[in-house]
Input
Amino acid sequence: MEKCTVIFQPTGKTVEVARGTNLMEAARKAGVFLDAPCAGKGHCGKCRIKIKSGKHKHEYTPLLAAEEIEQGIRLACLTWIQDDMTIEIMEVDIINDIMVEDITSASKGKLAKRTLDILSASEIEVGTGFTTVTLTLPKPTIDDNIPDFERVKRELKQVLGCEKISCFIEVLKKLPAILRKNDNEITLMLSKNDSGYDIINVADKKEAKPFGLCVDIGTTTVAACLVDIQTGEIKASANSGNLQMQYGADVISRIIYSTKDDGLKKLQQAIVEGTLNQLINKMICKLGISKDDIVFSVFAGNTTMTHLLLGVPAENIRIEPYIPAFRNAPVFRAGDILLGINKNAPVFTLPNVASYVGGDIVAGVLASGIWKGDETVLFMDLGTNGEIVLGNREWMLTCACSAGPAFEGGEISSGMRASSGAIDEVKIDRYDLKPRISVIGEVKPKGICGSGIIDAIAEMFLTGIIDMKGKINKAIKSDRIRYNHHIGCYEYVIVFGGETEDGRDITLNEIDIDNFLRAKGAVYSGARTLLNNVGMSAAEIDRVIIAGGIGQNLDIKNSITIGLLPDIPHDKFEFIGNSSLAGAYACIISDEARQKAAEIADNMTYIELSADSAYMEEFISACFLPHTDTTLFPSLKKAMNL
Output
């Protein structure tokens, strides 16, 4: 079989593949990240690359303009290699450029404080079974010549008052040299078990501390913190995109990919080696510690992400009756998945509730305090997957909505994730229909993210540019409203190409709007279904807690205008940021918090929307602006005379 060499610039990465190989697959093999929200089906247009040289075949797509094709621009997923090629990657650092909340920053540190306050108010003790002991051992003599480990145990038994002490082989390998290098003084990191202690690490410095790693594994973004287990202080944080994005933007795409040859292995490598270990290395370098000092880890992720992290087949999650492989994963060791911390460090994953409600929502409920209050709270995590919880300390219902990647800019022609160059706020002038925009970073705009899309659609509706169905009013005379012959529908121009970073117009077309209306309709109808199941109306909700990345810049008024959020007083809404990471943090610093998380998961009642006879009717009604039943939005009805 004829082989071809492909060079990816500017990374310089090279790969040899068989002639006829799809360029997207070649990039994956080379370890080159290409954004692929549609999982390489040619629907999203995000995997643009530029052919510098080499014969190839490509499939026509309306997502590329004629002038782009002339310039050598292609979609990698619709290009097949025919000869040696040189490729220019057009989005070099999107994986590290995604905006994720930093809970260690001064402005966001309240998230960690809030978690501690909730634990304190709930009388959940902060404390773990991890401890550090520094020993100075008597020097061995010809009369006292017992082995090194037995000498350590002899001293530890006196200090800890415990008879059963064990260690791992890596500790034995390091012990002799460290004892003799430091004149028989050592620092041990220990973990308490049911019958005694395990020695997880041995260090040659008195100041050695046990660190914990807490991680929120989102479908799109991954956020991590290193915590001093003894003090509870967050010492470092890091975040990036989830490298699994190259296999699809949503969990269904990734589950399907996991069933291909080596698909599950590649997805596990993408999250562990490609994402987590890179973040860990950044934090280790910042703190000047060893990876062996990280002796415990907690992960919060949705059910699919947890399965893929562990390398457990996930295909049954998407097939009726939607059965995951596990709810509570056994506590395992970091070395089992090649995680870049102490290989003997125990790893805890927060429990799943059901197929599409996982440990990230359990973590969010734990950190938000819903489970301990009398108020009826609607908890909404608005990310790639839309998960919702309704309840209080006596009861909790939950469901997951098939929102898809629209909130992250997926399935939107000019959509992008919240990163540098993304339009995150839009206001349209009522007279000349010109938009005023806000852009993330000091750069020209290159796309529009979720919060900006919500603003734009709300403003287009309020100005009459679009109707309740999301269709553009063709009668309006404006250079910003035009017919796009490539895709066969009308569009509104937010920014003309002369003012953008790549020279392409940033637009919202009727297909984009329809995709977003389905996403917001899924979330709103999910919330309505939970309310209907307990015979409540939106007016009876005491508080709405919004979690997830989109909440950082979400405009409540505009979100109500498009029918994403219920029309209730604005002071009932509260943003709490990355509640999944906050819950994981609680479980790092508190053994009791981990026990409480398990109780929360057991006490949540899951509603499978696909099996709810009334859900589809609710969903269809919610796919309009704001809804087919305008009485549900009294403030908007009054303002617009609907």
Q: What stands out?
A: Residues 137 and 184 are 5 Å apart (CA to CA). The longest helix spans residues 263-287. The chain has a mean pLDDT of 91.
